[in-house]
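Attaching the record inline, Q. Sequence:
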Amino acid sequence: MSTVFSEFSFKKLKVKRTKLSALAKREALWGLVFLAPWIIGFLLWSLGPTLASLAFSFTDFNLLHRETIQWAGLDNFRLFASDPYAKLGIKVSLRFAAIALPVGIFQPIIMAAILNDERLWARRLFTTLFYMPSIVPMVSAVYIWMGMMNTQAGWFNRALAVFGITGPDWFNSQVWIYPALVMIGMWGVGDMMLMTLATMQGVPTELYEAAQVDGAGPLAKFRHITLPMITPVIFYNLVLQSIGIVQYFLVPFVLKGPNGDPGNATWFYGMHLYKEAFAYSNMGYGATLAWILFAFVLVITIILFTTQKYWVYYAAGEE
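Structure, as predicted:
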C-alpha cells in the first residue's frame, strides 16, 4: 500500500513539475520579449559606448583625424600623471567636496527633524515648499541663482547693503565661489529630505516612550534613537552625494560656459574632462580621464560599503 502510494505521489509530483516548467518557460519567454527594448537599448547605448571608451583610452584618437587612430598603450595614463590641469581639477573637486559633502548630509536631516515635530504649524505646507525647488530643472535653477547673486542687482547683495555690507562678487571670487555653489546645491535636497522624514516617522514610538520614562530629553532622543534608526538613509545619501560631487559638472558649466578658465576655482575635474574630449576632440585622452574618474568613484563606493557595517544600523539585522 505504501509503495503504491509513493509511486502515485511521485508520478503526480512529476506531472506538476512538468506543467510548472512549461509555464515558467512561457513566462520567461514573454519576459524577454517585454525586456527586449531595454536590453537592446542597454547594449547599443550603454554597454557599447562604455566598451568603446575603454578601447579609446588606449589609443591616440582625435575626432578631427578619425582616419589616423593609433595605439597608444599607457601613454594617456602617463599624460594624466603629468597633466597640471587634471591635478587642478582634482584639487578643486576635493576642496569643494570638503564643504559640500557635510552640508549635503546634514541639511536633509535638520530639515526632516524640523518637519517631524508635530508642534510645527502647517507642516504639510512647509514640506511642500521645501520639496518644490527640487522639481525645478538644474539649468533653470542656476540661472535663477545667477540673478539672485548678481553683484549689482542681486537680492543677496541688496540685503547685505541694508546692513552696510558690500556684497562679494559671488561667482568670480576665488573665496566666495564655493559657498555660492553650495547654496545652489542646497536648493535641490527635497527628495532626500522626504526620504529622511519618512524614515523618521517610521521609528517605533515605543522607543521614544521608553526613553522619556528614563528621563531622556529631546536632544538625547534624537542622538540615541533617531540618528541610529535613520543611518540607512544617511548612508544612502552619503553614497549618492559622494558620487555626485566627484562628477560635479553641470553647475560650473552653466556658470562659466564651455570655455571656462582653467585658472579659476570652477575648474572641476568634470570640466577638464569635457574640455579635452569635446572642445579639443581628444577622445582618447578624454576616455582615459573618464575611466580614471570611474576608478576613483569605484574605490570610494567600495570604501563606503566596507565601512558601513561599523555605523549603519538595520532594524531587521541585515548588513
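The mean pLDDT is 87. Residues 2-56 form one domain.

More tomorrow.
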